[in-house]
Amino acid sequence: MPDQSRDEILIAAESDGLISPEAAFGTLCRAAGLTPADMTPKALDGLAASASAANLQSVSQLALAEMLERLGPAPRNADLAEALASGLPQDLLEEALRLPGGILRTAGALRAAAVDTPAPPPAVFTAHPVDFALEASLLAALKEGAEIVFLQDALPPAATPARLVDVSQAVSPDGFEDGFLISAAEAAAADMKDGIIVLTGLGAAVMALGLDYASDAGIAAGAAMAALVRSAATGAAFSASHAKALGLQARKSGSKRPCCVMILPVSDPMAALPDCESDAAAPVRAVLTYGDDAPSLTRAARIGLAARAPEALPGVLDRISNSGTQDLETALGIARLRDRGFTEAALDRVGRALGEGLPLNAAFSRWVLGDEIISHDLKLTPENFDADGRGVLSAMGFSRADIAKAEAALDGAGEAIAARALQECGFVIDVSPADEIRFAVACNKALGGGVVVSVSARAGLDMAEAVIADGLSAHLAGHRAPAGEDVRDRMEHILSLAEELADEADLPQSSPEFHEARSATRTRLPDRRKGYIQKATVGGHKVYLHTGEFDDGHLGEIFLDMHKEGAAFRSLMNNFAIATSIGLQYGVPLEEFVDAFVFTRFEPAGQVTGNDRITRATSILDYIFRELAVSYLGRDDLAEVDVTHDGLGRGAGDATREPAAFTEEAAQIISRGFSRGHLPDNIVILDKRRAEKQAESDLDADAEELESPAYLEQGCESCSSFTVFAIGEDGDTSCDTCGEEGRVSK
After folding, report:
1. Given pLDDT bands bounded at 50, 70 and 90, which one contains residue 226?
2. pLDDT tens-digit readout, 608-639
3. Could you give the 3-state DSSP secondary structure of residue 579?
């Protein structure tokens, strides 16, 4: 294959999302190049200790950064001495004083180090049945967030070139495009020489063909697609049995190429192939996708349904687009809502919001219903329900049990509607661990090995043992367990005591200042307010951040909307946003929230897409408060990407002028957060200039009024104009129009 033709094929395959750019195998698989060892209690204890130490290091760096930031940019020696007495390490303070930029630069470096703290490498063990005597140690390591891989054979070195191939992109509405897939695999193998092709998207490809994942035909098709890529990449034969499963011609073995084809979980598949809908050989993650306007079927589900039951596709898409109304009927009952005063306009707005994936609390909030509906139709005060949809329902006669039942009914309701519609058309959606293992075994046989099955740590060890027993490798990704209830209760008590001690030390209870400090007042936001909406995806989970601002541009409220999350998690995030908003309106500085929540670690986490300043986050809260800090506090140290803005473009290369400082006049019409504290150079505030021009106009009018002569009642004998005025006191006159002079008629 000529180099030019090969490059053209690779460029086309990359642009279509069929194949990823070349990368080191170690960036796709963290276990690359590690030699399997026997699992022992000592190894498991060391793994748990390493994971715990990595988390402890990150937390310690953040704590030290916060201690330094409290000192400010130019602390006094007395402040530094007090910080040392409070536990700030002397060596760290000395180093901070030596560095250019001083205290705050050191704090920023510590925060950056906390983000970049590497996770401990995965433990790689020889695949054999798990010793039940070690099960407790294994589970303990997984709860600390450790990553464990059981390998049948060692993986290639980390530096080996590799490409990711999404097989589902080779299935189009016209059918399976085997020629495109073969050409791309051959070009990739020739380009990388001794490289690795990692297959993914097999489950989505099977659905796109109109087959069931766990059926004999589906398993055969998945194995056949894996065998076809192996044949194209390595020159191996493509057997008649595999060819029959796809309706293709068999291929004889050709010239051998030193390329390896594998199926394994990828560390960050969204970064390599953002449109991939299933990982490795696993089934599709979901059959419903949320766009900017309304939900719809995933690509694989649409193509598969069009192939299997094309006459049913329009009806299914219509049912999904109107799923918000169905959700509303299932959750609360439309008739009950009408009886309690909800008009058709209100029901339509709520139904569309639910259809777009908003939780119940957000769908019934003020920002969806609108002030007119809440005040005129429901006879409620809109200001009391800024982000409290449950409060609206409660005020309209729904009990807590009704609301909780409705939220439970909405949890995954859209996905359930889509799945039910596909099942009615003959698709089998439910997939068991045994089905995944059968699929993986067939692919492993087609490839001659190299299949690693992802096993959730929360599912227990039964599936991992079954995977190993069938001759496959298993990958377990641990999840750091949250603190137990006893620890949380103790921390709450400790924090309460600390606050009491701080109050007693700073403000004696007998002093007037103490009572004044304890009686803070809430500043309400204006009815018509500014703000912005930021849409982003964190670790594959879509997040909408809504902000509201005071008249001076300072942040006064936030709302968090998420798609496809459980009702409990969505409810926690919504109520957390309400609590944060109330704190901001009571005067809690945004800096305090930022210091408390940035770099917190919990799932979902990972790559951030859709935000021009933040590319990775350790949790949803980390992303939210870093975004707020960048937009409202100018904390560029919390952003990974440096961009500048001007009136003609964006990017470091575009900006030729520094943006103007944000002014009080700008705060009246522009969101401070949206403009990130700067006035773009293509916006000019004209209020002062207009005032100056008006003042000049008023002066000119006054001067003209003063200079105008007093005209007489009689007209000019020459031109008949009534512009005759007296000259002096002798009765002489002159016309302002024609200049004719005369005398006043007696």
Report:
1. very high
2. 888 888 888 888 888 999 999 988 888 887 88
3. helix
198 has which bridge partners?
164, 262
Phi, psi of 44 (to 5 degrees): -65, -40
- In angstroms, the Cα distances linking 635 to 108, 327, 590, 591 are 10, 41, 12, 10
Host H or E run for residue 152: none
Structure confidence at residue 647 as a pLDDT band (50, 70, 90): very low
Range 127-136 contact pairs with CB under 8 angstroms and sequence separation of 24 or more: 127/36, 127/151, 127/152, 127/468, 127/472, 127/473, 127/474, 128/468, 129/465, 129/468, 129/469, 130/39, 130/461, 130/464, 130/465, 130/468, 131/39, 134/39, 134/40, 134/41, 134/44, 135/461
* E strands in 653-737: 660-661, 678-679, 724-727, 732-735
Please tell me whether the overall predicted TM-score, pTM, comes out greater than 0.70 for this model.
no
Dist. CA 296–CA 161, nearest whole Å: 37
**Distance in angstroms between the alpha carbons of the first and the last residue of the chain:** 116
Signed CA dihedral, 77, 79, 83, 88: sign only: negative
pLDDT of residue 344: 84
- What count of Cα atoms within 13 Å lies in the side-chain half-sphere of residue 319? 18
Report DSSP state, residue 432. -
- Closest by alpha carbon to 480, among 45, 141, 149, 134? 141
pLDDT of 682 > 80? The answer is no
The C-alpha atoms of residue 399 and residue 354 are separated, in whole angstroms, by 20
Residues 6+ apart with CB under 8 A from 325: 334, 347, 351, 355
The two three-digit tokens of residue 234, written as one number: 């390595």
